[in-house]
Amino acid sequence: MKQHLLPLFFLTLLSCQNEEPCKTFELEKPVEIAFQETLTHCTESISVSFLDIIHDSRCPEDVVCIWQGFVEVKVTFSVKGLEKTAYLSSSPSATDSPSEISVNGYTLKMMDVTPYPNTSAKFREEDYRLLYQVEKTAD
């Protein structure tokens, strides 16, 4: 009997090594994700990927502007096997992109993107962070 369980043990061990560790976040609370990173919830089957910065026309913090501008990002939101890739905008009224998307009873809300533009600093894509929140909207 023990000889039959040994191969099963090693097979299980190998399959667990291929899984990515979860980087948990709490539902209903803001969480920050780095550019081109994926966060996977440890207890719910939910993941969020920050794929790209599509547009950033926000008024630099050290300038006075007549329009605040907006930032638009590309994300993938996956819930229980259903996946949606979408553009999210800080100003849905200025773009065709919403500030939140829903998948399978959960909503992903874009809250902020940092760093904020500044004329005295140059930022690389990998410097960007997306602040978002996932809320359960249905059972």
Separation of the first and last Cα atoms: 43 Å
What's the structural domain tally? 1
Percent strand = 35-45%
Strand order of the largest sheet: 1-8-7-6
Return the average pLDDT rounded to an integer.
Answer: 86
**Spans with pLDDT under 50 lasting ≥5 residues?**
8-18
Overall description:
The chain is mostly beta strands and 139 residues long. The chain has one domain (21-136). 12% of the residues lie in helices and 40% in strands. The protein has one helix and eight strands. It has one helix at 2-17; strands spanning 31-34, 38-40, 46-56, 71-79, 82-89, 100-103, 106-114, 129-136. The strands form two sheets. It has a four-stranded antiparallel β-sheet, with no helix packed on it. The chain has a four-stranded antiparallel β-sheet with strand order 2-3-4-5, with no helix packed on it. The longest helix is centred in the N-terminal third of the chain and has 16 residues, at 2-17. It starts with a helix and ends with a strand. 17% of the residues are buried. Residues 8-18 have low confidence and may be disordered.
Features:
139 residues; mainly beta; four-stranded antiparallel β-sheet; 8 strands; 12% helix; 40% strand; globular
